[in-house]
Amino acid sequence: MSGIPCALMRGGTSKGGIFLAEDLPTDPAARDDLLLRIMGSPDVRQIDGLGGAHPLTSKVGVVSVAGDDAADIDYLFLQVAVDRPVVSTSQTCGNILAAVAPFAIERGLVPARDGATVVRVRMVNTGTVAALTVRTPGGEVTYDGDAEISGVPGSAAPVEVAVEPAAGALLPTGNPIDTIAGVEATLIDNGMKSVLVRAADLGLEGGEDPAALEADPAVVRRVAEIRAAAFPLMGIDGTPETTTTPKIVLLSAPAAGGTVRTRSFIPFRVHEAIGVLGAASVAAGVRLAGTVADGLADMPADGAPMRVEHPTGFLDLHVDPVPGDPGAVGESRVIRTARMIMDGRVRPHTYPTTATEEPR
């Protein structure tokens, strides 16, 4: 086999394989089988594939020319499970979103302008359109620059991301607070279906290390209970085992001068940072009155970004209010960075994608 064209890219605080749709099977089952073999799943180390043994590094973006004038490209996100033969399209990813725009320019799907190029991206998983501004001096993509984001070493060229409001209900139940699985929660979707819960309501301080949270069976059990209870209320198809939404986000008062502190279950592991659209949903929950963020968040001055604290730093973003409608939010804007790590051909393994044992 000569291999399949693929770019391995970092987008924000995530990493994954980026493909042209024409290079993958059109049948979803055949596509998913191929991606499992490319990423090396199911295997806790993903030792025989591109995956990095963590959900944040086991991601795939599939890119094609948009089917209408509302966008330049279509972007389908697939989350490839690490230790299970599961490929999910139940969510999109705002970090990999930052990678597919420069990828599309590099592949010639979008013509580059001298200086900066705006790429309108339809996130196929949700139907939402985002406008990404990519630095293209001399009509070529550059990944070099002085923009820094928490959770990524060094600096790179900024990718400015502006995401339109999600098409569905911001509060799926219509309530700023619901009681589910015995705890108060805000069920919200500003691009990422999320359940916001006060960390203190689970007996936590809010600044715990992700590994400590994952190793606490009582916390893991409670998070699973809350997540399962949210499924019917949020109208999510699938099961908690095969669907990656909703994310459960624990909120606490900021500890480093930000707006609010977070710990995000994605859904089984704890994010080392926070996803772009997950942060947008948190920020929307902070902006709305009467949610679980009331009394915890420290709102910034008018015009300043919200700073969402996470385990490896913070994410700054703007979530615009809607004048005259305190129950709605407008556009979300954030700076990300991206980098092309490898551009070539990947050779998937050929043995069946059956579960493998954990190394001894």
UniProtKB/TrEMBL annotation:
InterPro entries in the record: PrpF-like
Pfam families: PrpF
Statement: the UniProt record of this protein carries the keyword Isomerase: yes
Keywords: Isomerase
SUPFAM superfamilies per record: Diaminopimelate epimerase-like
Tree of life domain: Bacteria
Family that this chain belongs to: Belongs to the PrpF family.
Protein name: PrpF domain-containing protein
